[in-house]
Amino acid sequence: MSGGKSKRSAVYDSEYKNAAKDGRKSAISENLYKKKKSEPIGQYLDRYTKLLDSITPSETPSPRNNATLTLINNNELFLFGGEYCNGNIFNLYNDSYIYDLNVNKWSLIKCNNKPKPRCSHQIVKYNDVLFMFGGEFATKNEYFHYNDLWTFTLTNKTWIEIKTNGTIPSGRSGHKMGIWNDNIILFGGFYDTNYECKYHNDLYLYNIKSNTWSKLESINPGPIPRSASIFSIKDNILFIYGGYSKINDIGIAHSDTWTTDLQHMATNGNKIVWEKRKLSGEPPRAEICYGNCVNDGVVYLFGGIRDINDDMDSIFYNDLFTINPQNRKWINLYRTAQPESLDSLKFNDKTSNFPIERANSLLAYSNNVLYVYGGIREFKKTDVILSDMWKYENNNWTCLIPCDIQNVSQSESDSVEGSCDSSVEFDDSIIEYEEYGEESDITYSNYSSDDDKSGEEEICKVNDFLLVKKGEKLRDFFERTKEHWLQKIPSENMNEKDAKRIAFENCKFFYEN
């Protein structure tokens, strides 16, 4: 989950491991779900969506990451999409759920027409309509970033794809959106094909009444390209804090703050003016992957992670902060003295006094109550997707729905690799191996194909020290060969942490290819 490990840790969003609970089957375990090598990505997405729609999901969402949770009225939350991976299973979703705050229960919305499966998209509410833009569908060899716009009408519970006009934003995920008058403002995000990665700092305006996109230019330099920033609009002021990007394959957690007055565009030739701001108060300990939501312009942040300087691991938090863009001051609402080890916590215990530390939880605020749903947490070097629901009211936490992760104790032995991102890439390798009847080798190195004689010849050329051992995970392989990768990096003008990140990326590339 380190900020330098992969793009997904920046924007960090399923399936129960025992998939029989909701009647679904793993996409990897069914040949019908496999992508054919010559199959165009668009055709594959259509087929994947139809197969997913043919299965009836349960009334309770399966655990998922990088979904969206939106307040649709004072008593209901709307959940859409997301992804799940535990090392063996990887799935993306396009199901829709409503959570009733009065009775603390989920209900499934059955739709005939709906968007294709995705994660890391954005949804905003305008009157009685939800607007969704972008997101991604990713496997090892196929990356697809959407730039479609959909509406979900709350009165009749229907999805409709909107064909828009103007300068449409490119396909992306990890972007941010907000409502300003009769417009949607979109900022940043990223595009990654595994061969090309690009982060954005562009700003777009979608006029809802004219159904037209336009790109907003700036008079002066503003925030550098990034995804997963904190984003708020209140009284014409657009507020941006932090985010994540990669520069030369090194993950960067940003902590800068920018604002712009949107109403001044009329006097600046439809161009914006960026202002860099300073914040006061005690900032969160976490660097990235906060869960966050906005209520009347005020931003609430929960959890997140911080890299450990001398290790590739991360510290998870369950701190709760707010920041008001008007006075730009951090306020700490809840903070534990020291993050606890997950091994010592009963994180499926409804009697717990507070939610465990996590990243990428989904937040919503209604009637002076903050709701926190799910998130992701490492357990024995394996990413675990959480599905609990909490509320924070009158300075106290209350568990509304405990985690349903009774199989978490097996997750380490069952996983391909500790990082969900790496498992995403390996999962598609599993699909390829299944075509050759080699599913039993999925926990081994990708050098395990007996049919590939040229691959064996390449292995013979590699020093035994660099051979991936049977069952060896990426994290263990890196620890064993770390000095080799560090020696190949020029040490001039580079600190130890950055050198280790680059070494890890090089090691990861070797391990996976």
UniProtKB/TrEMBL annotation:
Name of the protein this chain belongs to: Galactose oxidase central domain
SUPFAM superfamilies: Kelch motif
Organism the protein comes from: Babesia microti (strain RI)
PANTHER family on file: KELCH DOMAIN-CONTAINING PROTEIN, KELCH DOMAIN-CONTAINING PROTEIN 4
Highest taxon above the source species: Eukaryota
Pfam families for the chain: Kelch_KLHDC2_KLHL20_DRC7
InterPro entries xref list: Kelch-typ_b-propeller (IPR015915), Kelch_domain_protein (IPR052588)
